[in-house]
User: What shape does this take?
Amino acid sequence: MVLEFFRKQKYIAVQPEPVSRDIPEGIWVKCSRCNEIIFSKELDKNCKVCQKCGFHFRASAYERIAMTLDEGTFKEMDTDMLPVNPFKSAEYEEKLQAARKKSGLNEAVVTGEGGLQGFQVVIVVMDSNYMMASMGTVAGEKIARAIEAAAEGQKPLIIFSASGGARMQEGILSLMQMAKTVAALDKLEKAGQLYISVLTDPTTGGVSASFAALGDIIIAEPGALIGFAGQRVIEQTIRQKLPEGFQRAEFLKSHGFVDMIVARTELKSTLAKILELHLRGEK
Assistant: This one.
């Protein structure tokens, strides 16, 4: 009774009932490096790069294509190619269905042609949303076809690599894609066409040991993880402690494996400058 009296006299502040505010998912994103809370639309405007610390979020294949090519110029190739299940594994079939649902893609690679500030190029983009962009037979075939199209069409080639390695569910057939793509690059070289390899996070396994490492110019995004085997596996094999960050883009550049590190916000203009210099050299 006493408490009720004082409440009526406004001597005791009564806390209002909490208001439920449902914020739709995807409106805000938290940077995994600096913990900055970023408005999703602002992140997209900045090519999915944190404006505070420069952290590069992973981008899908179509996001990269939109960031790289001139609007409305992209023509996709081999859209009807679907991954195979050579050993008839029910578990693998389930994984493929889950990958399609998650990524919206038929395979881990998108290929095509388009304009880059007026220059016509063939582009290949690997998407880590599809089974970590593992290298399967159809992924390898799409890449090889794109390389051959660049050679036959006398167009420069740009490949954005991102992969967790070979697709184990396809066994030895997956490993054969390394040789197939390298053989296709030999045709491109004989055709005298430029190949720019862009290494993104992560580029590992057989991809890093084949076409990703064979560019005439090799560019890496800041902080990208690049290497063949994992650090723990290597340390156990050689029984030595490896230096911190030895598989990051910055370490690889300091040791001559990477030609340049370019922020995603500057990548399109950098690629255009390289293409212009290449065409001048041809003349």
